[in-house]
Design goal:
With about 300 residues, the protein is an alpha/beta fold. The protein contains 9 helices and 13 strands. Helix content is about 30%, strand content about 30%. The strands form 3 sheets. Strands 5-6-7-3-8-9 form a 6-stranded mixed sheet, sandwiched between helices. A 4-stranded antiparallel sheet has the order 11-12-10-13. It has a 3-stranded antiparallel sheet with strand order 2-1-4, covered by helices on one side.
Length: about 300
């Protein structure tokens, strides 16, 4: 079962939201979409779901177009809150589960398991509006997976969550992937994508500017990072040939270099320092790659 997006373009009047996008996402993969607001991520998700029609191109799941007949195998967590605030959590999940073709007994069983997993079993009889934004996000996530979808689309799933709940949700996403669910998600947080995805697509103004395997993307980027913590004349390191970026930190400096060879030249310079507590050569981060390709800081 593969999600295939082939030469897809979406226009709204004279505005092109998605421009000739082609992707193949196989079963059981976790695939990340990155891009600033307005890059075309949510529009792409809505076309996958059939909520919007593509202007050009085709989208298929398991060789077929996604319609209401196949919607029971798909889960969707929208970026916007989509729950009924006056309903109790249990009634909300039963209603949404029934829309997916489940019976009440199975819904309640799944609900209890998920609420226990997210450490909020007491929320079953609370109204949605009584919950914090982060806990509403948990309930919305449960609503998107309670029917055990084969394809799960998550639009900014970690939005509004504190670090502890981010970890809970990440663990849930990884367990679903291990069970064979195909997961496509967007995030403003590069570190989340690096942790969860083997393959990704960075979009900019509706076009894919980087697309492929995360390890291969980092390898082809070429540049590396060097972290030096110590005391002494650290500023001299920025003038070494091949150093492309220099940033002071509380403990030392963070350098971007053109190649691994440049890191050796930096290492040779360290004897000028009075004290060195750390010297590390690192792969480029997704944030480095995004800034280089898109030209915008990503917070």
């Amino acid at each position: 079962m593969t999600l295939v997006i082939e030469n897809v373009t979406k226009r709204f009047g004279s505005f092109t939201a998605v421009n000739n996008l082609s992707l193949r996402i196989p079963k059981g993969e976790s695939f990340g979409f990155l891009g600033a607001n307005g890059a075309g991520k949510t529009t792409t998700f809505r076309m996958i779901l059939g909520l919007l029609d593509a202007t050009e191109g085709s989208i298929t799941w398991n060789g077929e177009s996604i319609t209401y007949d196949t919607s029971h195998v798909i889960g969707y967590l929208p970026e916007e809150r989509g729950l009924y605030p006056k309903l109790k959590v249990k009634d909300q999940l039963v209603y949404l589960g029934r829309l997916r073709g489940m019976n009440k007994v199975d819904i309640l069983k799944q609900m209890d398991q998920w609420l226990q997993r997210f450490k909020v079993p007491e929320y079953a009889n609370k109204k949605v509006e009584e919950l914090s934004k982060g806990n509403q996000q948990k309930i919305q996530f449960i609503a998107s997976v309670i029917h055990r979808p084969k394809l799960l689309i998550l639009d900014e799933p970690f939005s509004g969550l504190d670090p502890v709940n981010v970890e809970l949700l990440k663990e849930a996403v990884l367990s679903l992937r291990e069970e064979g669910t195909t997961i496509v998600f967007s995030s403003h947080r590069m570190d989340h994508v690096e942790e969860l995805c083997e393959n990704l697509c960075i979009m900019h103004h509706g076009k894919p500017v980087v697309h492929g395997n995360l390890k291969e993307i980092k390898r082809s980027f070429g540049k590396k990072n060097v972290v030096v913590h110590g005391e002494g004349d650290l500023e001299r390191l920025q003038f070494i040939e091949g150093v492309t970026k220099y940033k002071k930190t509380a403990e030392g400096v963070h350098l971007q270099v053109e190649s691994e060879e440049v890191s050796q030249a930096i290492f040779q310079e360290l004897h000028h320092l009075s004290f060195v507590s750390k010297f590390v050569l690192e792969e480029p981060s997704l944030n480095d790659i995004f800034i280089e390709k898109v030209g915008a800081s990503y917070e």
